[in-house]
Amino acid sequence: MAASGPVTTPPRPPADAVSFSVLGPVRVRRGEDALPSGSPQQRALLAALLLRDGHTATAAELVSALWEADPPAQALAAVRTYAARLRRVLGDGMLLSERGGYVLRLEPGALDLDLARDLAAESERVHRSGDLSLARDLLVRSLDLWDGEALAGLPGPFAAAERVRLEEWRLALLERRLTLDLELGGHAEAVPGLTALTAAHPLRERLRELLMLALYRSGRQAEALAVYADTRRLLADELGVEPVRELSRLQQRILLADDSLFAVPHAPARPRPPEPVRPALLPATVPDFTGRGALVRELVDRLAGTADEAGGSVTALCSVAGLGGIGKTALAVHVAHLVRAHFPDGQLYADLQGAGPRPAEPGTILASFLRALGTPDAGIAESVAERGAQFRAALDGCRMLLLLDNARDAAQVRPLLPGTAACPVLVTSRARMTGLAGAHVVDLDVMSPEEGLQLFTRIVGEERVAAERTAALDVVAACGFLPLAIRIAASRLAARRTWTVSVLAAKLADERRRLHELRAGDLAVTATFELGYGQLEPDQRRAFRLLALADGPDLSLGAAAAVLDLPAQRTEHLLESLVDTSLLDSWAPGRYRYPDLVRIHARACAERDEAPGERGPALSRLLDFYLATAARVHAIERPGDRLVDHLAPTATPGLRFSASGDALDWLYAEAGCLLACARQSSDAPRLSRAVDLLWVTRDLSESGSHAAPYESTAILLLDAAESSGDPRTVGRAALVLAESELFLSRFDAAERMAAQALREAETSGDTAVLCRAAALRGLVDFSRGRYGAAEARLDRALEGFRADGDRPGEASVLGHLARVRLALGNTHGALTLARQAVGIHDGLGRSVRGADARYTLGLALTRAGRYAEAREALHAARDVFGEHRQRVWEGLTCLRLAEAELAAERPAQAAELAEQALGHIGVTEGEQRRGTVLTVLGRALDALGQPDRARTCWQEALRIFEDRDAAGYEEVRGLLGHTAATARRTRPRQGGHRP
Predict the structure, then answer these.
(1) Nearest Cα to 191, choosing from 156, 219, 155?
(2) Which end of the chain is more exposed for a tag (fewer CB within 10 A), N or C?
(3) What is d(CA 942, CA 908) in angstroms, rounded to the nearest whole number?
(4) Model confidence pLDDT, tens digit, residues 44-58
(5) How far apart are CA 136 and CA 122, in angstroms?
(6) Would you say the pTM of this structure is higher than 0.85?
(7) What pLDDT is stored for residue 14 in this prediction?
C-alpha cells in the first residue's frame, strides 16, 4: 500500500474557547460548559451566520432566512435584538456589525461542520494515496460529529434548505464509508447497516448497489439478486424508470458469478532482490531452494544496505535462529549468493559445528580466515586475541561478507567479528543469539503449506504430484512443513518409481512410525533432533519430555507449571530456555507450543527416558489445574451456583481472577487445551474429573464458539464412562451430552441422554444431576410442545434446586416455567415467574443466567404488548450476553428484539436486528435457529416493501425446516403463498434507463 504521508489533523480551539454545533441541535459551548443560545428564532439567526463561512450577512438576508416572503412588521428590530443577545453570550470580538449586516469571526475548528469537512477532505486525500483503513477511520470520525438531524428544531426556510443539503452530504459520506468497508473486506458486517439504510432511503440506488455487493461477497447471491428485483419494482412503481446502468451491470455480473467482484485493493509488489551470482568461498546454494520470500528480502535489504552505506565502525550483524532441519543454512547461503555483488572483496564462510559434541574453536576458524586472506602460516599469531586483531586489520578498508554457519552460542561468535560496518556478518544457529549486541535476530519458522508443496513438487516432479495433489498435501502436513523432513520424504518417493504419493502418505499417517520413515541415506530427522536434545541440561530435558505429553495445541505458563510441578517463575525460565534453543515456540506471551515433529520426538524421549510413574501424575496435575481454574471461572460467571460444590476434588488450586473479563479471557484462550485434556483423560483414574471439567465449561458449547468439538468430546467421555460402569460418572457424562444436544436443537438425542442421566443419577444418588436432568427433560418437552409434561418435570427440578440451596438453579427453572406459561397463553403468570427469576439473579449479581431471565421477561412483555418494556429487558440481556461472549444468545436476543419491533410496527429496526442475529448464529449452532431468524427477517423486509428479498429469505427458511421436519414449516409456507399471490397482482411498469 502506498504511503499516505503525514495525516493533517483538523485544528481544534483551545479548551476554554467558544465552539458551535450545527450537526444536530444548534448549541454553543465554552469549553465543556453549555451557553444559552436563546429562542428557536435566535438559534436560526445564529445558524444562518455560522453557515456563511465567515462572510457578512446583511440584515435583509437574515430576515429572508428567518421568514422568507412573510416577515413580521418588526423583523429588522427582532434581528437586531437577537444579535445583541448573542453578542452578550459570545463576548466581544466574535459577532461583529459590518456594512449593514453581521459576521461571525470563528477560531479554526470552532464549528463542528468545519471539522467534519476537514476530516472528510483528509480522508479523500489518504484514500487517493492508498491507505484505505486510515481513510475509513477519518470518515468515521467525521460522521461521529453528527448528533441527530442537523439544525434540529430550527424554523425558517434557510434552516429547512440547509437541513436537506447537510443530510444529503451525510448520506454521501456514509456511502463513501460503506464503500471503504467493502474494500477492506467487511462485507458481512456491512449488511445490517445497509439493510437499515436502504429501508430508510429506498430510492437511493448507490446504497442498493452496495447492499447487493455486500450480500454477494457474503455468499448470499440469491438475496443480492432479490435486492435488485425489489429496487427495479420500486423504481418502476414510484418513478416509472429502470435502475441506473451501474446497478443493472452489477446484477448481470452477479448472475455470471464474476470473480472480479471479490477483488480488493492490494499493495504494490516490492522491488525484486538482486539476481544471485556465485561467491568466492560460499557453499553452493541448493538448486531447489523454495519459498522464504519475505525473509530473503529482509536479509538481502539489511546486508546490501549495510554495504551501500559503509563507513561506520559498528559491524552489521544478522542472526538466523531456528530448529534443526528448518533450513537455516539453505536460507543463509541463498541470501549470501544474492548479495555477493555488493561485496567485491570476497565472501568468507565457516561451519562452526555448534550442534555437534565438539564445536569449532574460534582460534581455528580465525586461522582459516587469515589463510584465505593471504596470510602465510608463519605469520599467524598464536593466541586467539592476537589472531582476532590480525583478522580485523586484514579486513580494514574491505567490503566483505562473512557467513558463520551453525554457531553454538554468542561466545563462539564474538572473537570472529570484524571491526568495520563494510563487512557484515550473517550467523545461523539453533539458539537465539540474544547475547550478541546489536544483532538483528530472525526466527525461522516451518514452511507454509504452499511452500512445502512447492518444495515437494520440485523434488518429486510435477506430473506425479498433480495426479495426487491431496495426498501430497497430506505428506507435507505429516512432515510438519519442516524442510528437512519434506526433502527426505520427497527423496524417498523420487527414488521409488513404483510408489504412489498415497503410499508414502499412508506410511507417514502412523504417528508412532513417522520419524522412522523420515530417513534417506545419511539424512534423518531424528538424528537432527537428538543433537539438540543432547545439548540440554537435565531439568531442560525433563521439561522437554513431560510438556510434550499434553495433547492440546499449546500450553500456557500456568498449565506448564502444573505439569512440571514447579513454581511459575522457574517454569518460565525453563520454557524460555527451550525457546532459545528452538525446540519450543512462544507464539504469544505466556503461551508455548512444539513444532509438530519435535512433539513426536519429545514423546518418544519421554517413553524412552522418563519413568512410567512420572508420566501419569504429570497429566493428572494438568487435569487438576484445568478443572480447578475452570471451576473458579464458573463461580465468577454464575455467582451462587452450587455446581462447583459438586465437582470432584483437585490437588491443584488453579488460578485466581480479579474480574470476569480476565476469567473469560482464560476460558476461551484455553478452550482447545481444555477439551484436548478432557479427551486425553478418558482412562479410569482421571475420567470422573474429565467429565466434571467438561460439565463446568459448558459455556464453550452454549456460546457457540466450540460447540462441535465440545459435543465430540462429550460423546467420547460418555463411551468411556459406560465402559467403566460407574453410574455417577455415566450420569454426569450423559447430562453433559444432553445439554450439548439440546443446544444444537437435536431434541431426540437430548431426550435420550437426559433420561439416561436421570436413571444413573437415581442409582448413584447424585443430586446435582437429578435436578439438572429433570430441568433438561422439561425443556425438551417444552420444545416438543408437551407443555403439561414440561411443567411437571420443571416443578420436580425446582424442588431439587431448592432442596440443594441452589438459588441460580431455582431462578433458571422459574424462567423455564415462565416460558411454559407463555406457551399456554397465561401471560400474567409468565410475567410473574419471569420477574421472580430476575429478582433472584439480581440479588446474586450480574450474570449470564440473569440475562437468561431478562430474555424470558422480554418475551413475556412482548406477548403482553408492552413493547418499550420488552425492548428495555432484551437490550439489557443482550448487553450481558455480549460481555460474557455468549455469541449465540446475543444473536437470539437480537431475534427477540426484532420480533418485538415487528409487533410494534417498526419493520426497519426489525430488519436490522434480524440481520445482526444472522451474523451471530452460524450453521454449527443449529440450522433451525437460522430458519427462525430468516423467517423474521423476511417478514420485516416484506413490511418494508421488499417482497422479492423477503421471498428469498423464506425459501431458505423453508429448506431448513423441511430438512428437519421442524416447527415453522407451515408458517413459512403460508408466508410464501401470500407473497406469490401479491406478486402476480403487481407488475412493474416499463421505463427507459436513466444515465
Answers:
(1) 219
(2) C
(3) 10
(4) 989 999 998 888 888
(5) 10
(6) no
(7) 64
